[in-house]
Amino acid sequence: MDASDPRALHDEIVARWERAATGWGKRAARMREFGMPVSVWMIEHVDLEPGRRVLELAAGPGDTGFLASERIKPGGTLLCSDAAGAMLEVARARAAQLGIDNVEFKRMELEWIDLATATVDAVLCKWGLMFSVDPEASLREVRRVLRPGGRIAVAAWDEPPVNPWATIPTRALVELGHTTPPDPDAPGMFVLAAPGRLQELLEAAGFVDAVVETVATSRSFAVVEEYVEETYDTSSLFGEVFDRLSDEERSAVVERIGSLAEPYTAADGSLSLPGRSLVAAADA
Fold it and tell me: Is 174 helix (H, G, I), strand (E, B) or coil?
């Protein structure tokens, strides 16, 4: 990714999420279960009551916002948004499936929120801010669209060592020479993981009374092959590399992932991989 051209970098990130949308739709129930502890924390740390207008940014399948939609009835509205149109369609289909009727959908960027100033009561952004080309600008935009006294709740991934579920597949590809290590300073899963970084960004954007905590979550799989298949479906970065490999190379990758995941593997071959998310909330 070319960090010297923010627009091109942004477009590349969005394109990757467009490609990942099909897999996220396929795995939506699993991803909802995985992210639920984080979603619950976020919902509990914004001021939701009937009649409120809530914006979810980088909504993906929409599950956090859908939880909020129940809290703001009657009279409240959820605005579900994502920069990737295909991901927004996944959320639209899930809302219909779940019978959620107080929701609007709009394609929007994190860095340039297409809403008037002071028009929403709460903003949710789960695991999206890490992919912004300018997280501080994104948070300033959030503060702009929030009404005075409005609340924000965000989530970003904690440091790599406490998230082996995410690092093992990439590590296997790197160790086998199929890709290079990710740039720790580029938009990505762990770019906001440094201690104090989220709080600094919130305060720089003008938010007050910020609270930052951690929430544990985990990924479970019956066998290592299931782990690889789900990673392939939900990570376009992994999928792009895996698609280029021969059958023999793919088998070697699966074997290496299994070896790296051995500390989290039970006698029956099932895997339970820990994870930890940062969560934060603050007042506008």
Answer: helix
Percent of the chain with pLDDT over 70: 99
SS (H, E, C) 110-173: CCCCCCCCCCEEEEEEECCHHHCCCHHHHHHHHHHHEEEEEEEEEEEECCHHHCHHHHHHHHHH
- Domain limits, the chain: 6-159+184-217+276-283
Helix or strand (DSSP H, E) at 16: helix 6-26
pLDDT digits (tens, 9 = 90+) for 42-91: 999 998 999 999 999 999 999 999 999 999 999 999 999 999 999 999 99
Q: Report the distance separating Cα 135 and Cα 187, nearest Å.
A: 9
Q: HSE on the CB side for 213, CA within 13 Å?
A: 12
Q: Sign of dihedral through CA atoms 90, 94, 97, 99? A: negative
Pick 6-159+184-217+276-283's CATH classification: 3.30.70.3270, 2.40.50.320, 3.30.70.380, 3.40.50.150.
3.40.50.150
The mean pLDDT value of the chain amounts to: 96
SS3 5: coil
18-19-22-24 Cα dihedral, nearest 10 degrees: -80
Name which of 214, 211, 186, 181 is nearest 199 in CA terms. 211
Q: Phi-psi region for residue 13, left (φ > 0), alpha (ψ -120 to 50) or beta?
A: alpha
- Residue linked to tokens 């199929």: 178
Query: Residue 126 and residue 279: Cα distance in Å, rounded?
Result: 9
SS3 content of the chain, % helix, strand, coil (to 5): 45, 20, 30
- The per-residue DSSP string of 236-265 comes to HHHHHHHHTS-HHHHHHHHHHHHHHTGGGB
Asked if the model's pLDDT at residue 3 lies above 80, the reply is: no
Contact 211, 282 (CB under 8 A): yes
